[in-house]
Amino acid sequence: GENVEQHPSTLSVQEGDSAVIKCTYSDSASNYFPWYKQELGKRPQLIIDIRSNVGEKKDQRIAVTLNKTAKHFSLHITETQPEDSAVYFCAASFSGGYQKVTFGTGTKLQVIP
Amino acid sequence: DTGVSQNPRHKITKRGQNVTFRCDPISEHNRLYWYRQTLGQGPEFLTYFQNEAQLEKSRLLSDRFSAERPKGSFSTLEIQRTEQGDSAMYLCASSLLSTRPEAYEQYFGPGTRLTVT
User: Fold this and answer.
1) Helix (H, G, I), strand (E, B), or coil: what is residue B26?
2) d(Cα B41, Cα A44) in Å, to the nearest integer?
3) Please, what is the average pLDDT of chain A?
């Protein structure tokens, strides 16, 4: 089955700096890669996703890159703000099937004002 | 509220008791998923329904766990003879079977936090 590894497990940045979270996946059939943000005590919420036919996607201060050959993808947050502080999960799935999503172990991001 | 809802939000039970959780997905969504999340970990897939059919079960789902979606709408997850190791957040998510790209997204409910004492 799919295995998703995520690094780092914790990340502290100064407000205004950039944050980068990296993930690798094992199943070359995976073709959909969502990123979820989970604030303490709340549900995971999708913040951005990328499909395997695209190498990069950007939405305001958030961008995701995908390298299918190396089987890794990354989340980039620029101009970080205190409200970006949360746990971020990467995930991988194969959309042609029943869309089972395999999550990474999470990165706790702390943005220091 | 048009989002995914789960009840109860919190459940404290004694070891050996049975518990049942309910998930109400977004009304037009035909796919429903159950996940378990322990502290410091990402959600782990438990099982998946497409309409009323349960199409996949994780090896994590022991014989003490059973899930149903009898009419293809709400779903229940029952844990029999609970153990302390069952303590976790149980998350439900739903999505729409469609060729539209936005259908890939799974919408999560707020979860049911189970504590087994």
Assistant:
1) coil
2) 12
3) 92
* Distance in angstroms (rounded) separating the CA atoms of residues B60 and B87: 14
Beta-carbon separation of A43 and B111 below 8 A: yes
A69 token code pair: 């050959």
| pLDDT computed for residue B112 by the predictor | 97
Q: Of the candidates B30, B36, B15, B62, which has an alpha carbon nearest to the alpha carbon of residue A98? A: B30
Q: How far is CA B104 from the centre of its chain?
A: 18
Distance from CA of A30 to the nearest CA of B (A): 13
Could you tell me which residues come within 8 angstroms of residue B65 by beta carbon, excluding any fewer than 6 positions away?
A: B46, B77, B78, B79, B80
Amino acid at A55: G
Dump pLDDT digits (tens) for A37-63: 999 888 999 999 998 888 899 999 999
Letter string b/e over residues B14-36, b meaning 16 or more CB atoms within 10 A of that residue's CB = eeeeebebebbbbeebbbbbbbb
Please tell me what DSSP assigns to residue A39. Answer: -
The counts of H helices and E strands in chain A are 0, 11
Q: Judge whether B51 is closer than 8 Å to chain A, CB to CB.
A: no
Share of chain A above pLDDT 90, in %: 78
Of B57 and A37, the structure prediction assigns the larger pLDDT to A37
